[in-house]
Amino acid sequence: MKKIISILLCLCAVMAVQAQVIKKGDAFWNGKVLYTVTEIRMGKIVYMQGVDASGNDYELTLEKVGKKAGNYKLIPSRQADDSPFRCPWNSRVTYVRKNGMYFLAVRNADANLIVETLVLTPDNITNCQAQFEDIKELPLSSIASKVLFHEETTVCLNTEDMKQYVKKFARKKNRTVIEDTNMQLMKSELNERENCRDNNGY
C-alpha cells in the first residue's frame, strides 16, 4: 500500500511539472494575436508563430530558464529589434497554473509588474477575437474580478476607473489570481499613460 501511494505521489508530481511546461501545439492568446507553439529547440527554446484577426503574422520566442518548471525569458525572434511587449528582451515569463487559470505572465523587470498575459486556449483566432470583442463591451465592474485581462484589455479602460480598482484590489487581503494579475496590468497601463503625459509635457 505504501508503495502504491509513493508511486501515485510521484505521478502527481510529474503531471504537475508537465502541466507547467509549454508543449508543441499549445496556443496562447493575448487579446490581439493567437500564438501557436510550432517548435521547441534543444528542449528549451520555444518558438511560436502568431496571427491576428486581419491575418498578419507574428513571432514569439521564449527560452527556458533554470530547472524549475514554468520559468522562461523573452528572447528575440530571428532579426527582431524591439520587444513585442512593454518590457525589454530577457524579461521573465512565467507559466502560471493556478485556480484553473493557465497563462503566460510577462513581467517588466524594472517595476516587477505583469505587463502582458497570454492565455492557453483551444480556440481559433476567430473565436478568440469574437469573445474579446464581447468582453470589451462590458463595464469594468463586471469583469475586473472574473476575466483575466491582457494589455489589449487595459488600453480600452478609463483611467479613473482603473485607479479605483487598483486601490480596491490593493486593499484586498486575499486576491484571486485574476484580481492580482489584473491589478498589475492596470498599474502597467496607468504607468504607461503617466509616462506618455510626462514625455508630451501635459
Description:
- The chain has 202 residues and is α+β, with helices and mostly antiparallel strands.
- It is built from 6 helices and 8 strands; from the N terminus they run αββββββββααααα.
- The protein has helices at 2-19, 125-136, 140-143, 151-154, 159-171, 177-200, and strands at 27-29, 33-41, 45-52, 57-64, 71-75, 92-98, 101-108, 113-120.
- An 8-stranded antiparallel β-barrel has the order 1-2-3-4-5-6-7-8.
- β3 and β4 (57-64) form a beta hairpin.
- It starts with a helix and ends with a helix.
Number of helices: 6
Low-confidence stretches: 1-18
Number of strands: 8
What spatial form do the alpha-carbon principal axes imply?
globular
N-to-C CA distance? 71 Å
Topology:
Blueprint: H1 2-19, E1 27-29, E2 33-41, E3 45-52, E4 57-64, E5 71-75, E6 92-98, E7 101-108, E8 113-120, H2 125-136, H3 140-143, H4 151-154, H5 159-171, H6 177-200
Antiparallel strand pairs: 1-2, 1-8, 2-3, 3-4, 4-5, 5-6, 6-7, 7-8
Throw out a few tags for this protein.
202 residues; alpha+beta; 8-stranded antiparallel beta barrel; 6 helices; 8 strands; globular; disordered N terminus
Short description:
The chain has 202 residues and is α+β, with helices and mostly antiparallel strands. The chain has six helices and eight strands. Helix 5 packs across helix 6.
